[in-house]
Design a protein that fits this description.
Distance between the termini of chain B: 37 Å
Structural class of chain B: mainly beta
Shape of chain A: globular
Low-confidence stretches of chain A: none
Distance between the termini of chain A: 36 Å
Radius of gyration of chain A: 13 Å
Order of helices and strands of chain B: EEEEEEEEEEE
Strand content of chain B: over 45%
Radius of gyration of chain B: 13 Å
Order of helices and strands of chain A: EEEEEEEEEEE
Oligomer: heterodimer
Largest sheet of chain A: 7 strands, mixed
Mean pLDDT of chain B: 92
Number of strands of chain A: 11
Number of helices of chain A: 0
Largest sheet of chain B: 6 strands, mixed
Strand content of chain A: over 45%
Mean pLDDT of chain A: 92
Largest interface: A-B, 25 and 23 residues
Helix content of chain B: under 10%
Number of strands of chain B: 11
Chain lengths: 114, 109
Amino acid sequence: NAGVTQTPKFRILKIGQSMTLQCAQDMNHNYMYWYRQDPGMGLKLIYYSVGAGITDKGEVPNGYNVSRSTTEDFPLRLELAAPSQTSVYFCASSYGSGSGVGYTFGSGTRLTVV
Amino acid sequence: QKEVEQNSGPLSVPEGAIASLNCTYSDRGSQSFFWYRQYSGKSPELIMSIYSNGDKEDGRFTAQLNKASQYVSLLIRDSQPSDSATYLCAVNPGNQFYFGTGTSLTVIP
């Protein structure tokens, strides 16, 4: 059971470039989330999805896009990368909200924009 | 007002002591509460969940919830150097979780 798989683990982008962070889960979780974590700032929600075809913005969505065509996959797209997007990105999944069951996190993607 | 607030620390305790970590939240509709442990450079891992007032014990960990005071705490008994990490409090009032900024704990051998 792989859990939540994120790729790549590390990436350096130049300003203005674009990339997609991949996230896949094999636990048949309906809910999936993208967070970014900056030093000393905690986890900030970028986007989340409550099921295939349904996505919604979180606290810091500007500069990002998502799609959810299947239950398993929830890719995060960065368009026109900026230095402010340098961060560690975590994907997470759960059965649902309010269920008393917490998230399962992926191992993270460390992104540097130069 | 932040959804979830934690003291950032650092909190230092000697090996074998009890470490006490605290968290307050703003949304009275929150139903589920979680503690995550995050080692440096790693992803958060769930260590405790609680959704009823009172105490919940799991090994050396005890989570305490007081919904009237909007307060969640985590006690770590017999602290070990391997417990040195950042502890994140998370609250689930709806479709998403809100995380505190975390408390850094160092257990001194």
